[in-house]
Amino acid sequence: MSAIETAPVGQATVALPTPNAERKPLTEKEIAADHPTWCPGCGDFSVLALYFKLIERRKILHEKITTIAGIGCSSRFPYFVQAHGAHYIHGRALPFASGVSLSRPDLHVFVFGGDGDAFSIGGNHVNHTARKNIKMTYVVMDNFVYGLTKKQTSPTSPIGFKSKTDVWGSMDQPINPMKQLIAAGATFVARATATNPNHLLSMMEAAMDHDGFSVIECLSECIEFYEGAFDAANPRKGGIFNTVSPEHDVTDELAAYKLADTAFPGHFGVFYKVTEPTKNANEAKINAGAREKVQGQADWQILQKSFSRMK
Amino acid sequence: MSDSSTASPAANGTPTRSRISEAVIRIAGNSQDGIQAIGGFLARLAGRSEQEVMTFMTIPSTISGGPSIFQVRIGSGEVLSAGDEADLLIAFYQHSYDEHIRSLKKGGIVLYDSSHVTSNEEWEKDYHHLPVAISALTIESIGGTAKDKGKNIYTLGLVAKMFDLNIVKLTNLITERFTGKDVSIVNTALAAFNAGYSHSLGNVLETFEFIESQQKTGHQVVMNGNEALAYGLIAAGVRFGAGYPITPWSDIMELLRRELPKYGGSFIQCEDEIASVSMAIGAGYAGRVAVTGSSGPGISLKTEAIGWAVMAEVPLIVVNVQRGGPSTGMPTNVEQSDLNIAVFGGHGDSPRVVISPANVEDAFYTAIEAVNIARNYNVPVFILTDQSIATRIEAFEEPDFESICQNIGPDFKDVADHKPYDLSTPSGVVPRVPPGTRILSGKYPIATGLEHDEMGHPTGSPKLHMQMTAKRRKKLQCLGESLPVPEVYGASEGNILLVGWGSTMGPIREAVDKATAAGDSVSSIHIRHIHPLPPGLETIFSGFNHVFVVEMNDEGLYGYGQLANLLRARYCDPKIRGLTKVDGLNWKVREIIDRARSTVSVGILKR
């Protein structure tokens, strides 16, 4: 029998434990693991708390939670979640998560990472995961600085930002994550900030419901190495939190691109959202067609038939 | 053409017919002439006639065109290599004739296209020359529009006549090959074949007839090593893979991409080598045994991720079809210079398994063995094959599919509790619990590249780093103890022991046979398990005065090839020495014998 087709959706629930239907939503206590190693005041705490809330609200079964990350401060994420998870290598969380997503249609994979992972060392993977439209949700916790390695310039650091690798101020053009994601063909692109939890949670829910590659750029302040970076987007600090206008057509690529062109702090909300076939669905379609042709045959018989052509 | 047994006496003007046990045919032309097709038909015919066969080809690494050869050795007895010297050379062009005439044995036959080749008087003394206006006659037989197309099939007809090949079987093969295409294509091919077959070869030459081969049990299949390896992975139950195109690995990914959907699996073409290995590891983490692979520079790119799989203890199959290196190197030539990167590649102490198939048939079974090691030990396993096995065609007994095909789908049954990196097991092996598995204790595992505690959470504890490093090592030591002791080919004691690995098994064994027949005391062993090494090698080495490790790689700074270095480090035995070469070509039997003899005369202490 084919391995992928036998991927059981919930078949594992035998008599002893509580049946799925009667299971209560997980509490924060049940899904919180190690105490986060982030600095006090880090924006990432808020993202973690909202992930817990999302799991609780959406009643995700404990064993189905799959949290994946690369390397960086934010990428410590999986250790803080009491669930299946993987802490992979720098910049490559997306292809790793793609392997999980494509071989396990029963799981909705969440990937957390920072701006270095997403737009520097792993930049090309973002483009190709977007282009392939592999089903998963990717939350980029963007702090405009390298925090784990203690204040070097990041691909999103604004020009003039003084870091240990640009003591005179950063001079390379920063990446505009929204523009890049839209251009790469991501089918759900949203922007949020860690300081507006209700908005961020609604973005995470919308991303999770999207059938395809959904990405949220979440501004998440590094109070240690780039304090005040996002004050302009925080009304409590005198900034403005501009949500995307309800009139904005999320299927209009050019309008989305224009929205992404607004000067900092820009807009928050869903910039772009379209329905395109996912890689998962395309592969499943190819499989269904191929399986139909070999209907009723065991794997060994299919193989035997291939070999009979090589005699 | 060895073993000419009975030769019928030559009547006046009629060609003689000799009974032969084997023949080496080299076809030289350009890469677009379809010479691989001639070789392929001959190999397939041999498979259907219960004969043994081995092929060897060179292809230019240019995009289109360039000189190319295909050599096929067919035998009624055992065929171990593609043959040092050809009995018959077919030369399509002047350069084919000029460059390959020396590959013929003295007295061999050169059949050349007199439309393109002018013979050399000097050489006419040493070799039988047989001019046939192949190009012109092909056009005559099938019409002029096809130009050069069809001359390969015409030539196949000539060869069929010369070797009295089974016409019914060959005609079937040609028909099968072109079935599904326009009927006129089949007819044109058959017309070209028949024209070649009925061309009079004149009365100057003898023709040949293969003696009946020893009846083999079962049916033979004919394929190249890349195909055998890919199908072996399917038989092993691999249902997910990811890769990036690179020569000569691409065939494997193409085949898996095409075939896996039939089995409900997928093979994904990724944006680069790092994404490929990462995707395969992701699928491995998710409960599969997934495959990635590459050649040359692609393997270098994957090494960081492979280190993660070692650390996180996730199963993974990495196919490395070795080619000439370093860097872009010689993409279409054979070399065995990736043993070090397979065994040691990457930073830190990252023990992984390395297995190397010995021939095409073994590539099929090695794939199955590799998958089972990967899933039983939760470790990356390198299948270290090479360009020679990848592209050569061999016939082998059809596998018993029903008994070998495995279902290795993941198990998601609830578990009470789970420690992914449990230190209490003696072997260091812990069963995997992929996502989707409910853990009733509510404590879930993290797969990680950071040094970790038993649950997978990061630790800086010196004690845990020592214990976890030992755990990862212990798994391989445990595996090593369970491996079979290699069998000695030839006498179990003597003067010289040749040690080989990978595609060199055939020529090494043939060298043992030939040298033994000539009165030398030579035996050989073949090491399939490169890392960990199998037990019992010390005992085998102790029976010989000299141990020569025959490899296709450089002797290095200290005078030893890559396996020789490993064996010297492991056994501290000064009689282990290297016989290496890096000409991008397979070892010839004669080269092995000559090098072994001369190295013995140098003596151990001279180095």
Q: How would you characterize the overall build of this protein?
A:
The complex is a heterodimer of chains A (311) and B (607). With 311 residues, chain A is of the alpha/beta class. Chain A folds into two domains: 257 residues, Thiamin diphosphate (ThDP)-binding fold, Pyr/PP domains (Rossmann fold, 3-Layer(aba) Sandwich); 34 residues, no CATH class. Chain A is built from ten helices and ten strands. Chain A has an eight-stranded mixed sheet with strand order 2-1-3-4-8-7-10-9, sandwiched between helices. A two-stranded antiparallel ribbon of chain A has the order 5-6. In chain A, helix 2 packs across helix 7, helix 4 crosses helix 5 and helix 6 runs antiparallel to helix 8. Chain A is globular, with a radius of gyration of 21 Å. Chain A starts with 27 loop residues before the first helix and ends with a helix. The N terminus of chain A is likely disordered. Chain B is an alpha/beta fold. Chain B has four domains: 194 residues, Pyruvate-ferredoxin Oxidoreductase, domain 3 (3-Layer(aba) Sandwich); 180 residues, 3-Layer(aba) Sandwich (Rossmann fold), CATH 3.40.50.970; 73 residues, no CATH class; 109 residues, Rossmann fold, CATH 3.40.50.920. Chain B has 20 helices and 22 strands. In chain B, strands 3-4-2-5-6-7 form a six-stranded mixed sheet, sandwiched between helices. Chain B has a five-stranded mixed sheet with strand order 12-13-15-14-20, sandwiched between helices. A four-stranded parallel sheet of chain B has the order 19-18-21-22, sandwiched between helices. The radius of gyration of chain B is 26 Å and the shape is globular. Chain B starts with 16 loop residues before the first strand and ends in a 5-residue tail after the last helix. The chains are: A alpha/beta (311), B alpha/beta (607). Strand 2 of chain A pairs parallel with strand 17 of chain B.
